[in-house]
Amino acid sequence: MILQIDIGNTRIKWRLRLEGRTLGSGASAHGDYRWLTGHGIRRVWVSSVVVAESERLTEMLAKSGLPAPEFALSQSSLGEVVNGYREPHTLGVDRWLALLGARQRVAGAALVVDAGTALTVDLLAGDGRHLGGYIAPGLALMRQSLALKSQALAVSPAVSAEALPGSSSSSAIEAGLVAMGRGVIVTGYDALAAAGSGPSLLFTGGDGTFWQGVLGEGEVVPELLFSGLERYFQAQ
Fold it and tell me: In Å, how far are 53, 57, 61, 97, 140 from 35, measured between CA atoms?
């Protein structure tokens, strides 16, 4: 069995795989490894964007008698996918793996929207070239940046492609957040469409379903990063 782990900015996701089947999965807060038990695990594949949590995981695996973790790294290329950064290793590994996962899912151009702590939008051309991307604050970070009272920020965002003007401070905040996030995604989509044929629109991350609802199109792929993680290690 292979334990696959995604250490993001705010939480940890994991799944246990055997011969292409998922036997179990879950999520936890940083530092919570109560789920880290089991026998028959022969490899541990990890995507991590938090160094301190990577070190904690390594310690916990050793204490549990499990294999040492193997960490994915951003590359200049893998198969048809070519990293678009001038310094490929500086592309976040989560974004690199999402691009690999996107290529596994669609053969043509794809706009990859990863909506978590940050909202990242990456452009993948039909020939596999990464054309760069956009990074913006996610919904929670955008709310926090306004530094308003918690009561005003506690309203759940209304899914509205039009981001209609709000009739109260709280609804105006939500409308502004929707307009800003939608603008980043649409800008990326238009840039990719201008470079070739119409791209597929793939959403992932904790707020992926929300943004798919705002745009009213595209596909939500919760395990896009894990798909890329498998592609990465199968190619090693």
Answer: 15, 12, 11, 24, 27
Q: Would you name the residues annotated as active-site residues?
A: 94
**Residues 11, 147: Cα–Cα separation, whole Å:** 23
pLDDT tens digits, 31-56? 999 999 877 999 999 999 999 999 99
Residues 182 and 205: their CA atoms lie apart, in Å, by: 16
User: Could you tell me the CA-to-CA distances from 9 to 51, 117, 186 in Å, in that order?
Assistant: 10, 7, 25
* SS3 assignment, position 196: coil
CA distance 181 to 187: 10
Q: In the numeric block, which tokens belong to residue 179?
A: 């307009």
State pLDDT tens for residues 141-197. 887 776 555 554 555 544 454 557 877 777 777 788 889 999 999 999 999 999 877
Strands of the chain, DSSP E:
2-7, 11-18, 21-29, 43-48, 69-71, 77-78, 81-82, 110-115, 118-124, 130-137, 200-204, 219-220
Q: Using one digit for the tens of pLDDT, what is the confidence trace for 85-124?
A: 999 999 999 999 999 999 999 999 999 999 999 999 999 9
